[in-house]
Amino acid sequence: MHRRARQVLLVSAVAVVTAAGFAWIGAATPADAAPVSLQSVVPVPVSAQPAAGVTYTLPAAATIQTPTGSPAATAVGSYLADLLRPSTGYALPVTTTSGTPTSGIALLLSGADPSVGSEGYQLDVTAALVTVRAQTPAGLFHGVQTLRQLLPAAVEARTVQPGPWELAGGRIVDYPRYGYRGAMLDVSRHFFGVDVVKRYLDEISQYKINTLHLHLSDDQGWRIVVDAWPRLATVGGSTQVGGGAGGYYTKAQYTDLVAYAAARHITIVPEIDMPGHTNAALASYAELNCNNTAPPLYTGTSVGFSSLCVGKEITYTFVQQVLAELAALTPGPYLHIGGDEANSTSDADYRTFMNRIQPFVGNAGKTVMGWHQLGQADHTPGRIAQYWGTTTSDADLSAAVSKGAKVVMSPANKAYLDMKYTNQTPLGLSWAGLIEVQTAYNWDPATLLTNVPASAILGVEAPMWSETLTKLADIEFMAFPRLPALAELAWSPQSARNWDAFKTRLGAQGPRWTAQGINFYRSPQVPWATPPATGR
Ligand code: IFG
User: For the chain, is the Cβ count within 10 Å smaller at the N or the C terminus?
Assistant: First the structure.
């Protein structure tokens, strides 16, 4: 090659590398330099109107202002301050005001678009201030989660990051499609302590989930103290799948979890699974068994082999006392009484048992929730059937609905977070099928079932069974990114949802999870954004 030409080639090569280099460095900043788009929020809002050319920059002296006379609104302000202080390094005092702020961040309980209802919000960003308006503190909390996502991913770091902390101008008016937006954690197969559950509550609250169902009892473990039956915890809670030490929540710990959830506007739904899935209770008290002999504690993963003794009176004393003590600790409206896989209980006994114990829930001031097999038993007012089937119709579910039940959708082949993503997923099961992110996202809770009216659907819940999960990182790997996908099904209008737009919005959540230390699955279906250069 001619020398001159070689020189030109070399220069241009250097130019390309340099440009590419700058381009690469540049690539790290446009994400930071351009404020996060209002169109990028997960779950996608009902409406988002960007204000072209308007940007709000959070000043170091900003205050967070909440209305006088609402401690719950002030608590949301403090929650926001706790989120933003570590990464911005700003003081962000939380003050109360009876007026209309003109700068900083305002959380107000007046002036919201009436469409926001009891859980929605209106978010306005101008050059001068950010205002979240809602009718309730829960609405303010959900607006704060959106505000959080509109700040750079670096805001999720727990050490001070360089700003600027910019927000794109505009207005979002948003409210949920469904009132029941849940996650479930099985703390029986493997026990997870208070700190793990609190971390999971932190993580799911980012996506406007408002219910955490705790599966507190099963064959392998009983996880909540019952004063009238102390061996349930001390014996029934003494092991877990694989033979580990297990554990249980004291009443004080359960109460702490309930309060922690409530501060994130999440309601706890406790489950005592009956009459099957009861080996831990049967192993704790011989007298609960029909043959007066306690079976050994169970550390395997089979299901369907246990049953409370339907013919013994002590069984009903037991159930009534357990439910009464649990109800007294549970401010939420529901007690979940299980009812699944009662393979060792005859159909007649199942109906006899369920018809006799359901009133105990009502007597304790709560409403019955159960797996959809509960449709075999009589209706009780307000009852919820939780659908966990893999088919588009089910006789027990139809029976429940025909008797007046509402439905929470947890189809095992769409919403079970313990299902493997692919055959290569190291954790999880696959009996309901493999669930990659697109499978978890691409369905409509209102129309999946052929013979259940859309009006019967209360919402969606994503169960996380823990036969194969032993630690927080396992829970995170299975929940992220599918839980945000299911959260969008539960919150956003069906008309606003489509996979191609969602996967890009989901990809932009990746750096936020990296900054939070969430151990998420980098699904090949998702175009993951590059994480910002943040310290943890
Ligand atoms: N089905 C059982 C769960 C659990 C699950 C694991 C329900 C309602 C399989 N019952 O799901 O206890 O073992 O995927």
Answer: N
Report the separation in Å between the CA atom of 336 and the middle of ligand 1, taken as the mean of its atom positions.
15
Could you say which of 119, 203, 325, 341 is catalytic? 341
**Domains in the chain, start-ordered, CATH in brackets?**
43-174 (3.30.379.10), 180-491 (3.20.20.80)
Residue with the smallest CA separation from ligand 1 atom 6 is 465
> How far, in Å, CA of 372 to CA of 337, rounded?
11
Q: Which of 215, 341, 372 to mutate to test the pocket of ligand 1 (most atoms within 8 A of CB)?
A: 341
CA dihedral (79, 179, 354, 294) in degrees, to 10, reads: -30
Summarize pLDDT for 184-231 with one digit per residue, the tens: 999 999 999 999 999 999 999 999 999 999 999 999 999 999 999 999
Taking the C-alpha atoms of residue 218 and residue 212, their distance in angstroms, rounded to an integer, is 17
Task: Decide whether any atom of ligand 1 lies within 6 Å of the 341 Cβ.
Answer: yes
Each residue's pLDDT tens digit, 428-470: 999 999 999 999 999 999 999 999 999 999 999 999 999 999 9
- CB under 8 Å to 155, separation ≥6 — which residues? 83, 84, 87, 88, 148, 161, 165, 515
The band of 11, judged by pLDDT with boundaries at 50, 70 and 90, is: very low
Sort residue 304 into left (φ over 0), alpha (ψ -120 to 50) or beta.
left
Q: Which long-range contacts (CB under 8 A, 24 or more apart) does 320-324 make?
A: 320/357, 320/360, 320/363, 321/226, 321/228, 321/229, 322/226, 322/228, 322/229, 322/232, 322/272, 323/272, 323/357, 323/360, 323/361, 323/364, 323/366, 324/360, 324/363, 324/364
Tell me the torsion sign for CA atoms 188, 193, 194, 196.
negative
Identify the residue whose C-alpha is closest to ligand 1 atom 4: 465
Length of the chain as a residue count = 536
Direct distance between the N- and C-terminal alpha carbons of the chain, in angstroms, rounded to an integer: 51
